[in-house]
Design brief:
CATH architecture of the largest domain: Sandwich
Number of domains: 6
CATH topology of the largest domain: Jelly Rolls
Number of strands: 44
Shape: globular
Radius of gyration: 38 Å
Number of helices: 8
Helix content: 10-25%
CATH class of the largest domain: Mainly Beta
Largest sheet: 8 strands, antiparallel
Strand order of the largest sheet: 34-31-36-29-38-43-40-41
């Protein structure tokens, strides 16, 4: 109080600039004094002047709430050093040390090309935010300074900070030779059609492209895609593209263009869609093949189905609204032909009677090294509980004594492993003629084995997960052998595990065929994805000596009739979607020569047969997946 009394007593003699100086240099004390003193200042002229100074001082305190000790705070200090072509770790920044949090920013200077500061690029701009994030992939080497100014309120109003510089140094990336991740795919066209080849390659710096036909550069063809309009017979040939950058050049795979003369007759179906009975919620596939067709159009009950323009029609999660009669119209330049009608019906069978895989069998030559026969099985669905009883066999000698086959594996040995577990869960050499095994053979419908035979067999209780069975010969012997996996379950319920994937990996000789048999049982059909994979094993998994061009054929073992076949899957989007839905590994690219079939099969016995096209030989995997 004594201070205030003296302040009031001597106030008329204050020199105004001095008062203003106090207000400027000691804002907080003056404002505290002003809050009390203003009420006792008289109406003198000096009091009126001081009142204006108090107002100015109070305003000054608000205006500079972002001034003084404010600093730019960034999660990475300046200068930031990054490399062109490499995505940078995001940098968060704001202004700290202020009395209030900023609500907007002005950004000026130069933001490096390829980067953004909370959406601002180039020379910046304005943004309402309390913080900023610098992120992206820089593209151009150089040193860039970004100026950041914070504002107290939105829309760059109120108090503001200084301009804070933030420097980013972008180093030039090391040169990297081009590498193709999208290869052109061979195509067949009719005279007058349009054809497009696509390719793409990575590299540093980004490569340029030059398309070639039969090894000769095509003038002006320097884009990622090559489109040929109104193709003629003379444009048939081999097409490729060369990618070039400062590190060198790379050439894509070759893609063959086959140009056929205009059709002289309308298409003819070699595969007609077949009637199907499935359970509600299942996937169903109607297949058709018309070799000379250039377009397909599916109908239900005579009405066109939207976007159903492939040779095969896939219906997911079928319901009562999908029931009906299906047919496909195949068209070429000579006309249109309509397939036979196929009826789709639903059977709400009990869960114990749903169509399912119950057996896989492989007849092939097994031996040491790459000839070791590996059979895989997945029990699922993986979130089910309980265990699935399996009967697993490796039969060699009995193939000779009971079926008269020569060159058999005299003494096969089988080993069963669970995925992720080092030690085998079971193994057998010579089954021994035990009663439990013989009873199990009869229960699953497997042919009997002589008690003294050197064939191998085992019973295994498999909880959900992946398993492999390896078949070898004693003393590194080789010979013909059949490997079998049977579902031995009884008293099934809706929660019972089942076989959802069966596969085999082995080496196939030139001119030979690997036969993989599988059996479906139940009251409804089941859609399966069948694959014969060779090239992708080398590209994805680094496996050597793979079969370069496998061909896949599907037969009905009950009738002996061929159902369908595939040589080169062609990148069909429906096949990619089906593989993803069952967890199958993606094939290397759309141009691989792997073979794939997607088909709905009634309960029965079937075989997938894989052989090499021409002289093609090597390791291949054959897979059968149950689709939900």
């Amino acid at each position: 109080m004594k201070f205030l009394t003296r302040f009031h007593r001597h106030l008329p003699w204050f020199n105004l600039p001095a008062v203003a100086l106090v207000a400027l240099l000691q804002r907080t004390p003056v404002l505290r004094v002003a809050a009390v003193a203003e009420s006792i200042i008289g109406a003198s002229s000096a009091g009126q002047v001081l009142r204006s100074v108090f107002t100015a001082a109070a305003s000054l305190g608000a205006m500079h709430s972002l001034a003084g000790a404010t600093v730019l705070s960034a999660s990475t200090v300046t200068p930031l050093r990054v490399t062109a072509g490499t995505a940078m770790a995001p940098v968060a920044m704001t202004v700290t040390g202020a009395q209030t949090q900023p609500l907007s920013f002005t950004v000026s200077g130069a933001i490096p090309p390829g980067l953004s500061l909370s959406g601002l690029t180039g020379t910046g701009g304005r943004i309402n935010a309390s913080s900023l994030t610098l992120s992206g992939t820089p593209t151009t080497a150089g040193t860039y300074t970004i100026n950041v100014r914070a504002w107290e309120k939105i829309n760059q109003t109120g108090d503001s900070s200084s301009n804070f510089p933030y420097t980013v140094t972008v180093a030039a990336a090391a040169n990297v030779l081009p590498s193709f991740f999208l290869q052109p795919v061979s195509q067949t066209a009719v005279v007058g059609n349009n054809v497009t080849f696509n390719a793409n390659a990575a590299g540093t710096p980004l490569p340029t492209f030059q398309w070639r036909k039969d090894g000769v550069a095509i003038s002006g063809a320097t884009a990622l895609s090559l489109t040929l309009t109104n193709v003629q017979l003379g444009q048939a040939g081999t097409y490729s593209v060369v990618a070039t950058n400062a590190a060198g050049t790379a050439t894509s795979d070759s893609a063959n263009l086959t140009v056929n003369p205009p059709a002289t007759a309308a298409p003819s179906f070699t595969t007609q869609p077949a009637p199907q009975t499935v359970s509600p919620g299942d996937t169903v596939v109607f297949n058709s093949t018309a070799p000379t067709a250039t377009a397909y159009r599916w109908q239900r009950n005579g009405v066109d189905l939207a976007a159903a323009t492939s040779a095969n029609l896939v219906l997911k999660s079928v319901a009562a609204t999908d029931v009906g009669s299906y047919r496909v119209l195949a068209t070429n330049s000579a006309g249109t032909v309509t397939s036979s009608a196929a009826l789709l019906t639903l059977n709400a069978a009990a869960a114990t009677e749903l169509g399912r895989l119950i057996n896989l069998s492989i007849l092939t030559t097994a031996g040491p090294g790459p000839k070791v026969l590996t059979v895989g099985a997945v029990v699922g669905p993986l979130n089910f509980t309980g265990a699935l009883p399996l009967v697993i066999r490796a039969v060699g000698p009995t193939l000779n004594t009971a079926f008269g086959l020569g060159g058999v594996l005299a003494d096969p040995v089988l080993t069963i492993n669970r995925s992720g577990v080092a030690a085998p869960v079971a193994a057998n050499d010579n089954w021994g003629g035990g009663a439990p095994l013989r009873t199990a053979f009869a229960a699953v419908g497997a042919f009997d084995l002589p008690a003294a035979s050197l064939d191998s067999a085992a019973l295994s209780s498999a909880s959900p997960g992946g398993y492999t069975v390896q078949v070898t010969g004693q003393a590194n012997a080789s010979g013909l052998v059949i490997a079998e996996i049977y579902d031995a379950s009884t008293a099934r319920t809706a929660a019972s595990p089942r076989l959802i994937n069966l596969s085999t990996l082995t080496e196939i000789d030139a001119g030979a065929t690997l036969a993989v048999g599988f059996v479906l049982r139940g009251a409804t059909a089941r859609t399966v994805l069948v694959r014969g994979v060779g090239p992708s094993l080398g590209t994805i998994f680094g496996l050597g000596g793979v079969m370069a061009d496998p061909k896949l054929e599907l037969f009905n073992n009950d009738t002996g009739a061929k159902i369908t076949e595939n040589d080169n899957w062609g990148g069909d989007a429906q096949l990619m979607d089906a593989a993803a839905s069952v967890g199958a590994f993606a094939l290397a690219d759309v141009g691989t020569k792997d073979a794939v079939l997607l088909v709905t099969l009634a309960p029965g016995a079937y075989s997938a047969r894989v052989s090499g096209v021409g002289p093609s030989a090597g390791t291949a995997i054959v897979e059968v997946y149950e689709l939900p």
